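ARCHIVE CARD
Drawer: 12
Card no.: 0347
Subject: one protein chain, sequence and derived structure
Cross-reference: see card 0346
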Amino acid sequence: MPADLTWLLRWCEDEPMSSTGAGDLTPEAWLAAFAERLGLPAPDPADVEVLLALAGTAAHASARTAAPIACYLVGRAGIDLDTAATLAAAIGDARR
């Protein structure tokens, strides 16, 4: 595991599950602001749903920490979200 991602794993293990978070921003507003800082368009609601499903697949098939890293890998691979979701689901299917 690269050292630059260890903070993310620690945060995922320590952060309580919450739909609203501790800040004043909605998830959509936070993502839009983050995307803007990255020079990217904000994700549309359909992409968010696919990413959340992908994260859920990763987390339920292994551990909660797999969810953000799986989404990171999709971005690094540069593949479309539907293909990524299919590939992720196939890992669970192959283990059954």
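Annotation on reverse: The chain has a mean pLDDT of 84. Helices lie at 6-14, 27-38, 45-61, 66-77, 81-95.
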